[in-house]
Structures are given as structure tokens and as C-alpha cells.
Amino acid sequence: xxxxxxxxxxxxxxxxxxxxxxxxxxxxxxxxxxxxxxxxxxxxxxxxxxxxxxxxxxxxxxxxxxxxxxxxxxxxxxxxxxxxxxxxxxxxxxxxxxxxxxxxxxxxxxxxxxxxxxxxxxxxxxxxxxxxxxxxxxxxxxxxxxxxxxxxxxxxxxxxxxxxxxxxxxxxxxxxxxxxxxxxxxxxxxxxxxxxxxxxxxxxxxxxxxxxxxxxxxxxxxxxxxxxxxxxxxxxxxxxxxxxxxxxxxxxxxxxxxxxxxxxxxxxxxxxxxxxxxxxxxxxxxxxxxxxxxxxxxxxxxxxxxxxxxxxxxxxxxxxxxxxxxxxxxxxxxxxxxxxxxxxxxxxxxxxxxxxxxxxxxxxxxxxxxxxxxxxxxxxxxxxxxxxxxxxxxxxxxxxxxxxxxxxxxxxxxxxxxxxxxxxxxxxxxxxxxxxxxxxxxxxxxxxxxxxxxxxxxxxxxxxxxxxxxxxxxxxxxxxxxxxxxxxxxxxxxxxxxxxxxxxxxxxxxxxxxxxxxxxxxxxxxxxxxxxxxxxxxxxxxxxxxxxxxxxxxxxxxxxxxxxxxxxxxxxxxxxxxxxxxxxxxxxxxxxxxxxxxxxxxxxxxxxxxxxxxxxxxxxxxxxxxxxxxxxxxxxxxxxxxxxxxxxxxxxxxxxxxxxxxxxxxxxxxxxxxxxxxxxxxxxxxxxxxxxxxxxxxxxxxxxxxxxxxxxxxxxxxxxxxxxxxxxxxxxxxxxxxxxxxxxxxxxxxxxxxxxxxxxxxxxxxxx
Length: 768
Ligand SMILES: Cc1ncc(COP(=O)(O)O)c(C=O)c1O
Hints:
Helices cover 39% and strands 15% of the residues. It has 768 residues and is α/β, with parallel strands linked by helices. It folds into five domains: 5-146, Response regulator (Rossmann fold, 3-Layer(aba) Sandwich), CATH 3.40.50; 165-198, no CATH class; 205-450, Type I PLP-dependent aspartate aminotransferase-like (Major domain) (Aspartate Aminotransferase, domain 2, 3-Layer(aba) Sandwich); 451-653, Aspartate Aminotransferase, domain 1; 656-766, Ornithine Decarboxylase, Chain A, domain 4.
């Protein structure tokens, strides 16, 4: 499809569309001229309110024409042309707004409106052709400015319909047309996608590997928008970004200071660099939610102690400064750190800072996150080492999957040399970049640059509405029955506003969205359960929605009855609602750019349906027919409530949450570096070992149970007495899966084998 003027409708707001007056006839002629001669499309709107609604829901409007004077009967006191113009301008700084007015009316137009508009159209004086021409001139100029550098060039190139004599082999999509499966593919993805899949040899698009041409321009623009000195586009996800960062700064036996709550890619970063890790340990609250690493862990003394205690760091290296610290910001559940505080602590005790912000690329665009992201500007200009930030632009902004960004800010005294850095980038980059992914990064940047603040304000407000609605649903239920229950949210119940405590459901969402202190964790409002948390240090991201299920209270006490969260999320999946993460008694949903009120409404409806099925102990066959079909003996004769409580009792009696807590507080002895453990895999010096026989053995791979998605063991660590809580926890998970078929949850690094109808965990260990 060719992008033409037609795809950018002109919104015309007037009450005179069908009037049999001179102005009415001229308006009809103007529309005809725009549609027939100028190939425009028109959206008519009769009231200012309606126009505002259209503008709010459509970002493809190419120009707005506002009749300054709607007839009396259509105008209301609350909405005027003046207000409409101001509101549209507040949401889009460059969209052309033209006022349709008579010569006399222009004298009454206030300055504040004049400052917002791009011109007048005289209702009666100018020719129709001229008026249409003015609109089209503004529209064309605006729509040309919408293209960011790379994407604009790519569209231009694709629309030149060149004959391709280069890779990829389908050559602009033609190759697909040779067989039915290919035709299907062509039809599904469409010609534009295929014609813009180009070779690195197309000079117009610059080069990703040496950051030249429009690609380099796009990266530089992203650096400006995201607050970096340098930004690199990376096409194999943040997994690749993390490895590029580490490869650029660490070599064999360098010390790294790593969040234990790290993504697997950091484990592999340790493998490829052959670094020696010492770990930061994140706190967990009594509900089992992963919280922040305490600020005190970043003190030079604490780091020194960890280095001293490491069995792998040789005495001659014990006084070395870690080459890198890597912190996950934010955590899965949306705990984000005051980076200014961390920078101050780590200013001299590490050589480079790395914030893994895979889930958090938007933070710079809304003031509620001030100071809580890696590229935050520090008003006090505190000293700091170079800062690296990795962001999966694709996760919560609008890039294609795997399209990520790597941002660098130079240190106060140490600058990063881009030529040196590029060696690592090249090592991890393909010579066949997917240009649609590059374009998606360019466009994600432009979206944030143009209207990031507005987009994120809307998104945060939506998330807060959802949070408040959850509270009011429970209150409504309890009006009828004081003992009734509903799912909860992990969030403050009340906050301090102007020195008064108020319940959050009583505070407007707009106020909560701009009040950072409402979300910052503190000791005097311990809703978060991290009792020893430092003040002004960690905050909850309002868009990360952790729902809680009954079964455990905020003090960690398990109640008589309960609903393990996996039952709820499995139910939701059946209804087409897919959650981000499921824990024992909580599950996470993300409110993002793509979340609409409609989606929220369906969620509430399904949660209420689950509650209804639970309360009446609906037969499992009705709620989970597939589960009953697969295991009729285990689940065929019970109801949902009975089943939920059976699983809950198991978790309670076996103290699974406590055991998990204990397991995650242990950092096992390091028998060898993660890299050496991997080298054993390469040399085939490994074998699968049953969990029952694993005491004394060294896993060659990392073990990451979901929930909670944090490594419980790294490759090269020893399963000995110190690590017994880890073994106990894994054993408990194995027993649990045997007790409840169908409850297998993912554990990276663990394979399951079946003997005599029983499941056994196995892990790849170093041969003895
Ligand atoms: C903390 C963290 N870092 C890095 C990644 C990897 O990101 P990507 O999927 O873009 O490779 C993830 C993915 O889930 C993550 O959670």
C-alpha cells in the first residue's frame, strides 16, 4: 500500500455541513474539492466534544479545521472552539489547526488561540480552490515531518519500486510468488513489509555496523531523546545488548558485581567474558515478591567484603575494583531504583555501571519516574563512572520484537571511546540487519519525542484507574456481604498528600499520576513489606500491576483458605487474557500503550466470573475441562474451591514460600567461574544427574525456577551443605509436581524424566 494524502484525514468541525446558507454551500464545495481534486479524506464533526473524542482516539488526523463559531444550539458552556484548539494543541504540538472564521469574527479571537493555530480560512472571501489548497499545503508539510530520518528514507526507497539484484533472496517479495506457500506469506505480510526487507548493500539506508548515513542519524536522534551520549540499535534483543556491554568492558578474571535477580543473558555475559561474579542479593517480602537490593549493599565496604569472601578471586586481585556492576531496573514486579542514590554510592567502587532496563524504556518520558532510571539527569552533577543502559524497546515501547537500544553516558572523568566500543558491537552484530526493526526503533523514538509525555500520562492514568477500580469492586461486594472477598493489588492503601493520609481510591488518578511520592516506598507506610527499606530509594511503577490472590496476608501468614495464582492465570488464559508472570499468590499484568478500557473491562468481568465459580465450588470439569480430560482421576470429582484449597494446603503445609525464601537467600560456594562450567559443556565433560543424587555436584548450567524467574544457582556453583536450602526447594517443587499433575512450571536448567509414572528432575552437571 502506498502512503498517500488520503491516509491522513482532515477533521472538519462545523455545524454548517447541511445548512442551506451561503456558508453551508461553500463548506460542501470545500469538502468536494478536498475529496475529489486533492485526494483527501474528510472526517466531519458537528460538535467540539465529538471532535475532541475523535482527536483523542485517532493519531492519523492530518489537519484540523475548526469553525470558530458553531451555531448557538450546538455549543455548550463547557466546550468552546477556544478550548478545543487549546486541547488539541496540548496533545500535539505540530498538527496543523486552521480556524474557519468570517472576517468580523477574527477580531474576537483571543491571543491564546492565535498562539495555537496555524492560520485562518476565511469562510466567505477566498475561493474554494484556494481554501482547499491552503489545507493541503499544511497537511503535506505536517505529514512529511512525521517521518523520522531512517523510516522516511526506507519508505521513500521502497516506494521507488526498484529492481532488486541483491539479497535477501526473495528480492522485494517477488521470490515468494513462485509457490503457494510463498504467495500465502506474501499476502499475509503485504508488499510493503517485503519490499522494505533490504540488503546491507543499499547505500541510501546507511550502515548499522558503522553507524553511518540515516541509520547513524536515527541512532543519534535516539541518543538525544533517551538522554544518552551514544545510542546503538541492537537487533537481537536486550539479551544481545547485555553481552555487547559486558564484552566491551570486561576480560578474563575481571570482577563483576551482579544483581542475583538478573536475566539469563547476564549469566552468558559472564560466560563469554570469563568474568568472576560477586552478587547483590535482592530482598523478597513476606508475600514472596522480589524487591530491591538494599542501598547498603552498594557501599564500598559491602562490596569489599563480598570480594574478600569469594573463593574464586585470587589474593592478588582482592583489592581490585569491579569492572562492572549490573542491576535489574526495574524488577519484574515494577520496583525501580533511585539511580542518583546508587550512583553516589558506587561512584568510586565500580568502574562502570550497567542498568538492565529491559522492561523500562519509557521512564524518561514521565515525571513520575524522575531520578529512577539509568539515563536520569542528575541536577547536582554528582561524580559517576560511565553508565550503560540496556532497554528492550520492543517490550514496552512500540518496536518490533528483538529491537532494543543500548545507551551510554560518559563518566565524569572517563569517557567511552565509540571506536573501541564498536568492536564489541560488531562482534555481536549481523551483516544482514532487518531494516524494519531499525525503522521501528526510529519510529519508537519519534513517538516518544513528539508525544511521549502525553502517551505515558494516558497510560499511567489508565493503570491507576484499574488499580482504584479493584478497590471499589471489593468495597461494593462488601457492602452486600461484609465478609466477601476479591483479588487485591500490591500497592499502597493510603498515601500522604499535603501531610494528610488519604485512601488512594479517594485521590484522582490524575493526581496520583503526577505524585511520585505516592509510589516511593518508605518505612512509615509499610504496605510493600520491605520493612528495612531505605527512604527515597525504591518506588513501585504504577503501570506494573501485581494482583494478589487470597492465601497469604501482608505479614506472610498463610490463611486457612487460599487460591494459588496459577489457577487464576490459567483461567484467564482460557479466556484470552495472557498474564506476564505468575507467582504463588500473585500475578503480574502490564498496562502498556496497547491497553484500552475495553481490555480492562474484560479483565474485571473474567475475574468476577472466576470468583463466582470459586464461591459456588463449580465442578473442575466446567472451569478447566482440558485439565480434567487429561487427569480425570486427579481432578474429575472435585470443585474449583476444593481443588484450590487442596493445592493451597499443600503449599502451606510444606512451607513452600518460606523454603523458596530460604533458598534465594543463599549464594552457594563457587567451585568455578560460570565460564569454566560452560567450557566443560563444550568439552562434553558433563552429564545429567538426578536431583536426588545432586548433593556434592556442580551444575554446569544456571537453574532458574519460574516463579519467581531468578537464578537459584549459576553454572559452576556447588550443591553442598551451604546450598541445601536450594536442594530442598527444588525437591519440594519436584514433589509438588508429582502431587499435582499439570502444575509443571518452567525451570530453566532442569529437565524432567519419568520413571514408573513419577517425575524426576535432572540437571546437567560437571562430570566427577
Ligand atoms: C531483566 C531482563 N533483561 C534482559 C532481558 C532480555 O531481553 P530481550 O528479550 O529483549 O532479549 C529480559 C527479558 O525478559 C529481562 O527480563
